[in-house]
Amino acid sequence: MMSMLKKIAVTAVIAAVANLSGLAPAYAQIRVEVSGVGSNQIPIAIAGFTDEALTPQQVTSIIKDDLTRSGYFKIIDSNVVLNENAVVNFGDWKSKGADALVVGSVQSLADGRFDVRYKLLDTVKSSTLSGFSVTAPPANVRLTAHRIADDIYEKLTGVRGIFSTRIAYVTKAGSEYRLEVADADGEGTKIALRSSEPIISPAWSPDGTKVAYVSFEKRKPVILVQNLITGERTEIANFKGNNSAPAWSPDGSKLAVALSRDGQTQIFTVNANGGNLQKLTSSSAIDTEPQFSADGKSIYFLSDRGGNPQIYRMSAGGGEATRVTFGGTYNITPRISPDGKTLAYISRRDGKFQLYVLDLASGQELRLSDTTKDESPSFSPNGRYIMYATESGRRGSLAVVSIDGKVKQKLTVQAGDIREPTWGPFMK
Question: Which residues, including other chains, have CB under 8 Å from residue 123's CB and lie 6 or more apart?
Fold first, then answer.
């Protein structure tokens, strides 16, 4: 595992981003294994959509997989096909243990697209909770199914679903490094960048159209921003020494970065086009891994100014820093939740690098992982899950855990290491 100190040393429309025109497809898909369930699972039946065999992917299968993977739903076997206009006997479904029922249909249109219709029914109240129709080209059928699963998740839990969001990560196979982008379930993988040199610290822009990262293509760490739709790359920081740890401001106008251009690594901000560089810290310590708070008013960062690596917070314009983490003597890689209430980080205790979260209001700390070589946490945009990198069988793999630690997912590829995950934002 590459340690943090080693790293120091060395909206477009949904369809456009889903297709990521210009990115090459990848052939190695991620395999997902799920363990654990939420404290209160919602029993739901998903009937087969009429004529869904016409589509390249089965819509109901994707919906079931999404809801199962979340850990918050219990899928009730239906073994029937029902469209959105079917007459439903709510009592029958309630007797089967289903509190909710999903029905729908697929129609093939003359222009090659599909009209996908869906309805969510409440079997307890014998009422309709939600429903909509989407006209989608064949390439976007999977995205449409994810959007239906998102709607179901939100209507039944009160929290926005994240199944139609995307993730980015770095894989290493042989001597090749690849920056890859995929659906949140690991499907639809596309390659944004291939390189014979390392790629680290990818970070999604708030509008989901770009990724900032550190590339070693010039035999030194350089920060770039890549447009995922056009493929255009912009050099943001290529100063003397190390250029590392890019993190976007919530409005996407600038990035916080760690630079050693003046000697010791310190925190700076720079506009998203590479201009207006401003220095925020001037300590005698190593300050790195900056992260903007959810409201953009503060920056969390890693520093060894107290003798050991700990996480601090300062104003987004610089100034006095306040220590945030006190549990343990080695806490790195701060990540703040979308609501600004929870801090995730990696803590080394008893020789293990593990994922922790800290409730910033109460100061209560919780260990979320049971693995021992964790790094690079990233919150889902709804704040309910954290993706992080770890090791499995001496190879890098990804894992996802719910913020209460009860639901766990393991994501692996057949060949090569997979690391440095970043979870993309909600799309407008």
Answer: 90, 93, 94, 98, 99, 100, 101
- Both tokens of 86, joined, read 């079917």
The two structure tokens encoding residue 405:
């630690």
SS3 category, 60: helix
**How distant, in Å, are the alpha carbons of 21, 80, 235, 340, 359 from that of 335?**
30, 44, 24, 10, 12
Q: Computed over its alpha carbons, how large is the radius of gyration of the chain?
A: 22
Instruction: Give me 358's structure tokens.
Output: 């800290």
- Spell out the residues 6+ positions from residue 244 whose beta carbon is closer than 8 angstroms to its own: 7, 8, 10, 200, 201, 214, 221, 223, 257, 258, 259, 265, 288
* Cβ neighbours around 127 below 10 Å, total: 9
Domains, in order of start, for the chain? 4-28+164-423 (2.120.10.30), 33-157 (3.40.50.10070)
Cβ atoms of residues 235 and 255 within 8 Å? no
CA 180, 265, 257, 372 torsion: positive or negative? positive
pLDDT digits (tens, 9 = 90+) for 206-240: 999 999 999 999 999 999 999 999 999 999 999 99
For residues 148 and 70, give the distance between their C-alpha atoms in angstroms, rounded to a whole number.
14
Structure-block tokens of residue 116: 């996908």
Quick one: residue 245, left, alpha or beta (phi over 0 = left, psi -120 to 50 = alpha)? left
**CA angle in degrees (0–180, nearest 5) for 111-16-212:** 165
| pLDDT tens, residue by residue, 78-111 | 999 999 999 999 999 999 999 999 999 999 999 9
Please check whether residue 63 is in contact with residue 102, taking contact to mean a CB–CB distance below 8 angstroms.
Answer: yes
Which band of pLDDT confidence, cut at 50, 70 and 90, is reported for residue 13? very low
Provide the token pair at 82: 């029902």
Describe the chain by its helix, strand, coil percentages, rounded to 5: 10, 45, 45
Distance of CA 88 to the CA centre of its chain: 37
Tell how strand 42-46 and strand 73-76 pair up: parallel
DSSP notation for 67-90: HHHHTSEEEEP---B--TT----H
Phi, psi dihedrals of residue 60, rounded to the nearest 5°: -65, -30
Res 31: pLDDT: 61
Using alpha carbons, select from 249, 224, 229 the residue that is nearest to residue 300.
249
**H-run or E-run covering 127:** strand 127-136
Q: Which residue has the tokens 């790359």?
A: 233
Residue-level pLDDT at 34: 59
